[in-house]
Every structure is written in structure tokens, then in C-alpha cells.
Design brief:
The complex is a heterodimer of chains A (262) and B (266). Chain A has 262 residues and is mainly α. Chain A is built from 13 helices and no strands. The radius of gyration of chain B is 20 Å and the shape is globular. Classes of the chains: A mainly alpha (262), B mainly alpha (266).
Chain lengths: 262, 266
């Protein structure tokens, strides 16, 4: 464990040094993110010209979900995208050979080697929107709800990671799956709104088949004090199961990897 | 004209076979087309609670967003990425020695995707509309021609706009970000997040004069039959005006940028 933490420290120091050479791009990205956040928050107001609440969510409550959506999307851009979306490239060019010969867990290396430093602002901006939403609601989350939220947010990050890895691992058979990242982004996009906005089989699919409900809706409900510990336990169980499944699938996929030259 | 027809007879099959190499990409592009349906879900949730909005029933929203999803896939052009990539990496140089303008290559590439889309999805939507009572478009032949024309013009405008932003890459590495900013504002005013009829009057008027509606809201409103004859004519006029503006802008920037590009000697 300590060895892996030391490795992370070295990796991220290197990425930081590399990326900080492009400071203009960094500030431009932050400005763009802020703009998107404000624009998204303003444009959903048009719904509330026509109704006071949608499926039981008022405007500030919806902003909590949207803020968490931005934070999760930021996590995707910060950690998942810079690493996992390189996997097809590794397999196609045979770079994976080098990774497999390194004396550390291969899943760890392909998952956490890099950091999209450009996008560190997004999670913070998203949480800022959540704070603004609570200011509009005129109250703060209770301590117990805050703790529940932290647990659910951690589960959400694990779930999104495991889900992405499951999809990306198919590259061992399909090779060209460059667009998996687009697909993950598209699925995450549905988490912009609470799952109760969706009806019928779409809602069932977004809860059971594709775990979008766990990504934004449940953490938001926890923060708003509408969720019990039992659901949190369920989210934790889903996270553990998905993580185990993705790790097993990764090992299974590796057996089909033959290198680029053989 | 004849030369152009001959050119596209050669370019289109080439683009088609190139597309077929990346089938998975095409399928994912199709999947990404369901995004407007997320907005549909929100509006249906509102209608379920608040009843019909300004006379719009459930069916009206369904027809609008299914139409919008199809129109968006046909009109939306992402060619700014290609301009930026080719200019930045110098891949443009190989294109420049070919006799046809690079734009023709890009256009035929995008056309080949859309031809496939037309063959796959439009019949599927037509069958769904025929079978399902929840989805109806009552199209007259004259309106069908209008819709087709507005989609073609919408694609042309989207291509010209994306190209005008794309060739900014001759001067700056931020051309894609600039286009994102511009297009992102447009998503709101195009009729994507909300049909323009749901906007307050002032916003709706502004959206009618801006270019974004021509690429989504206008063809969709024609398809669902919401426009009077006068509004139809006005919509076409606005589309043509913006097409002229961005077409000229793109060509001027392209000529200037090309001189600069040669001067760098990439």
C-alpha cells in the first residue's frame, strides 16, 4: 500500500511538471468550465417558467444534482479519461508490453498513471454550485447527511471507474474502441437530472442496468437529507461488486492479449 | 457544375469505404444522437405534473424531440476538429497538393455518414410514426420538400460555421474552444434544451434572428407543422443570410490563413 502511494506521488509530480508548461491552456479551460456551469444552471431555469417543481425537485434542489454532475464529470476528466482512454492505443501499438513487465499491479498502472491536471477546476466548480444551491435553499446539510454524502460520493466514483474499465477492457477483443469514452460521457450526461425525471423502463435501466442513479441522484438525495443508511449500504455493495467484477474482467482480458508483434 | 459532380462521384465512394473501416465509430455516433431524448424526458415529466404547456401535449413534445434528434444528426457538423487537427499537425500539406479544395474532402466524408443515417434511421422513424399513435407527423408533400431543403441548408450553415471557426487554427490553438463556446451558447437558443415556443417572448424573438435555430429548431418546427407561411419564409431568409455571412467569413479566413501557413513553411 505504502509503495503504491509513493508511486502515485512520483507519477503526479511528473504530470504536474509536464502540464504546467501550458499555463494558458489551463486558465482557458478553467474559464470555459465556469462558463459552462453558469450557462447550464441558467438554461434549466426555462423548465421552471412552466412548473414549480419537476417530479418533486425544485430549482435549487435540481442545482444540487447538476453541481454533482459537474463534479463527477470533472472526476472523469481528471482521472478516468487521461488513463483508461489510452488503453486501445496501448493494445494497438503494443505499449502494454512495457506496462506488464513493470513490478506493480497492471490495473493500477493503466488506471492511475496520469492525471488530467487541466480539469482539476471542474470538481471544485461543481461543488461550488452545490454550495450556492444550499445558500438558495437557506440551510446547510446536517452533519450526518454530510457523512452519508461522502460515503455515497466515494461509492459513485468507484462505480464510474469500474463501469468505464469494464467497457474499456473489451479492447482486448475489439481493438478499436476509441469511442468508449464518448459513450461513458453520454451515459453520465443522463445524470445531469435526477433519475425520477425519467419514466418507465428508462428509469429502471438507469438504476439497474447502467448505474447512473448512483452517480448523482443518490449523493444529492443524501445531502438533501432524503436518504436512509440502508440505501447507502446498497450503494457501497454495488461499488464493491462492480469493482471486483471489473478487476476480474481485466485479468480475464489480459489472457487474450498477445502483444502487437506476435 | 459538371466537374463538381464528377469530383463527388469519385470522392463519395472513397469516403464511404473509409467510413466502413470504422463501423464501431459510426454506431457510437448513432447512439450519441439520443441525447435530445434526455430533454424530452424532462418535458414529459413537466407535462405529467403541470398539464399541457401553452397547448403542447405529450404527443407534441414527443414529435418535436424525435424530429429534433433526426435533424441534429443530419445538420450538425464537427468539421472544426478536422481543420484544427490538420492545420496543427501539418496533415493539411498533403491535402493541398491534391487538385480539389480540402473542403470537398471534408464535405464528402460528412455526406457519406449522413447518407447512411438517412438509409438506416429515417425509415425506422417513419415506420415508428406509422405504427405508434404517440408519434405522428402530418406531412404534406410541399412541407416535406421544405423540410428537406431546410435540413440541407442547415447542414451547409453548420459546415460553413464550423469551418470559419476551424480555420482560426492558422492563428491560434484555441479554435476548438472558441467554437465550443459559440456552439454551446447556441444549444440553448437552437431549440435543443427547450422548443422555442416555451421561451419568454423576448428570448424567442432573439433566437429567431440568430443562426442556431436554422440548424435544429427551424427544420424541426417545419416538420411538426408549427409554422405559418410567413414564418417559414422568414426562417429560410435568416438561414440564407447567415449562410452567406459564414460562407464568406470562412473563405476570407481560409485564403489569409493559407498564405500564413505557406509562409511558415510547414
Amino acid at each position: 500500500m505504502g509503495r503504491y502511494l509513493r508511486l502515485l506521488a512520483i507519477f503526479y509530480k511528473n504530470t504536474l511538471i509536464g502540464e504546467l508548461e501550458y499555463r494558458l491552456g489551463f486558465w482557458a479551460n478553467l474559464a470555459l468550465s465556469l462558463f459552462w456551469l453558469l450557462w447550464a444552471a441558467l438554461s434549466v431555469r426555462v423548465y421552471f417558467f412552466h412548473a414549480n417543481d419537476i417530479a418533486g425537485w425544485t430549482y435549487p434542489e435540481l442545482l444540487v444534482v447538476m453541481g454533482l454532475f459537474f463534479a463527477m464529470n470533472g472526476f472523469r476528466q481528471l482521472v478516468l479519461e487521461p488513463n483508461l482512454s489510452l488503453l486501445p492505443e496501448y493494445v494497438r501499438l503494443g505499449t502494454l508490453d512495457y506496462i506488464l513487465t513493470k513490478p506493480a499491479n497492471s490495473q493500477f498502472l493503466v488506471s492511475l498513471r496520469r492525471l488530467g491536471v487541466y480539469n482539476w477546476g471542474d470538481p471544485l466548480l461543481g461543488l461550488g454550485l452545490v454550495a450556492y444551491a444550499f445558500w438558495r435553499l437557506g440551510r446547510a446539510p446536517r452533519l450526518a447527511d454530510g457523512l452519508l454524502f461522502l460515503a455515497l460520493a466515494a461509492a459513485a466514483m468507484v462505480i464510474l471507474y469500474a463501469f468505464s474499465l469494464l467497457l474499456q477492457t473489451t479492447t482486448f477483443w475489439l481493438v478499436n474502441v476509441n469511442e468508449v469514452d464518448t459513450l461513458v460521457m453520454g451515459l453520465l450526461e443522463t445524470g445531469r437530472f435526477p433519475v425520477s425525471f425519467y419514466r418507465g423502463w428508462v428509469r429502471v435501466a438507469l438504476t439497474v442496468v447502467i448505474p447512473v442513479a448512483f452517480l448523482t441522484t443518490l449523493p444529492a438525495q443524501a445531502l438533501l437529507g432524503r436518504l436512509g443508511w440502508l440505501t447507502a449500504l446498497l450503494a457501497g455493495a454495488v461499488a464493491v461488486l462492480l469493482f471486483a467484477a471489473s478487476a476480474a474482467f481485466w485479468r480475464f482480458g489480459l489472457r487474450y492479449y498477445t502483444g502487437a508483434s506476435s | 457544375m459538371l466537374r463538381l459532380a464528377r469530383l463527388y462521384r469519385a470522392l463519395l465512394p472513397a469516403a464511404r469505404s473509409q467510413m466502413l473501416v470504422y463501423r464501431a465509430q459510426f454506431v457510437l455516433w448513432l447512439l450519441s444522437g439520443v441525447f435530445p431524448l434526455v430533454m424530452l424526458a424532462v418535458w414529459l415529466a413537466i407535462v405529467d405534473e403541470a398539464g399541457p404547456l401553452l397547448g403542447w401535449q405529450r404527443e407534441d413534445f414527443i414529435a418535436y424531440y424525435v424530429g429534433a434528434a433526426v435533424v441534429h444528426q443530419l445538420t450538425f457538423s464537427w468539421v472544426n476538429w478536422q481543420w484544427q487537427d490538420e492545420i496543427r499537425t501539418g496533415a493539411l500539406s498533403t491535402r493541398l497538393i491534391k487538385p480539389a479544395d480540402p473542403a470537398h474532402h471534408f464535405i464528402s466524408e460528412q455526406l457519406s455518414w449522413r447518407i447512411f443515417f438517412l438509409m438506416l434511421v429515417v425509415p425506422a422513424v417513419a415506420v415508428a410514426a406509422w405504427l405508434s399513435p404517440a408519434l405522428t407527423f402530418d406531412l404534406t408533400p410541399a412541407r416535406a420538400v421544405g423540410v428537406a431543403l431546410s435540413v440541407i441548408l442547415g447542414f451547409a450553415l453548420s459546415f460553413a460555421m464550423a469551418s470559419a471557426f476551424g480555420v482560426i487554427a492558422f492563428w491560434s490553438t484555441q479554435s476548438n474552444n472558441l467554437y465550443h463556446l459559440w456552439y454551446g451558447m447556441g444549444q440553448f437558443l437552437s431549440g435543443w434544451i427547450a422548443p422555442l415556443a416555451m421561451f419568454p417572448t423576448a428570448l424567442r424573438q432573439a433566437a429567431r434572428w440568430l443562426p442556431f435555430r436554422s440548424m435544429l429548431g427551424f427544420p424541426t418546427e417545419l416538420l411538426t407543422g408549427q409554422l405559418t407561411a410567413a414564418e417559414t419564409v422568414a426562417g429560410f431568409a435568416v438561414t440564407l443570410l447567415w449562410l452567406a455571412i459564414f460562407g464568406v467569413l470562412y473563405r476570407v479566413l481560409w485564403r489569409r490563413g493559407l498564405k500564413r501557413y505557406e509562409a511558415v513553411g510547414a
